[in-house]
Design brief:
Elements (H helix, E strand, L loop, with lengths): L2 E4 L5 H12 L3 E6 L3 H12 L5 E5 L5 H14 L3 E6 L14 H29 L2 E6 L2 H5 L5 H21 L4 E8 L5 H4 L3 H10 L8 H11 L11 E4 L5
Parallel strand pairs: 1-2, 1-4, 2-3, 4-5, 5-6, 6-7
Helix pairs in contact: 1-2, 1-9, 3-4, 4-6
The protein binds NADP nicotinamide-adenine-dinucleotide phosphate.
The site of NADP nicotinamide-adenine-dinucleotide phosphate has 31 residues, from helix 1, strand 2, helix 4 and helix 7.
Length: 242
Amino acid sequence: MATAIVTGASRGIGAAIARELAARGHDVVVNCSGSIDKAEAVAAACREQGVRALAMAWDVSDFAACQTAVRQIRDELDAPTILVNNAGITADGLLLRMKEEQFDRVLQVNLKGAFNMMQACASVMVRARTGRIINLSSVAGVMGNAGQVNYAASKAGIIGMTKSAAKELGARGITVNAIAPGFIATDMTDALPAEVRERAERQIALGRFGRPEEIAALAGFLASDGAGYITGQVIVADGGLG
Ligand code: NAP
């Protein structure tokens, strides 16, 4: 079984993915940026599955912190051969009103953060000649979304980065795929105004928001041996929104 890093796993989709990977027998690092108590609770739930799990806080947008964290994980657990780049933020606003810092921070965390972690882990995976990288994109990155030029740009960037890294790393036995969820019930979508949520529900073929566990099941599959011939793909899980 492998050692997995799940960024942004203190709640929401990341927490569900950490639990799913633990249930599949992998040791798990539960990353967050600040909410270490919540990350520790997720790690404790993972340990109940009989695996090792560490809660660790670092900011994925900090290049050096990512390098240090991966070195520490290698020393304390094992070389990480599963990476789930899930940490993400929103800072919504219309194009004409968006502040420069709003744009920069979302790109720094969502896109640069995934780059930082991929670079820190890829060298370890290349040496191991095996690896699974799963990047969280979004339907916003595929279809666009009013009020989210920053977020949609970061999530479209994830798609280009995923496809390029898949081409670079395939010969080393490493797969790189993206998941593009639609509306999933987490803190991120709880923050949306009620009318936006209701309008979204009417546009979703299944008529409801997804559950974090439904994204985690897909991530668990992509991390498994059964997904060994799938790479460079963007898998949309949006309940029929698109
Ligand atoms: P969420 O509930 O808001 O949780 C975000 C997680 O990211 C938290 O664990 C948070 O930890 C962590 N995080 C934020 N900034 C970080 C940083 N700089 N470094 C490390 N960790 C950081 O989010 P979610 O809804 O589960 O979304 C998870 C991923 O799926 C995101 O990439 C999101 O864009 C994507 N997605 C979500 C939806 C949806 O409908 N929910 C749809 C499409 C795509 P702290 O609290 O400690 O900062």
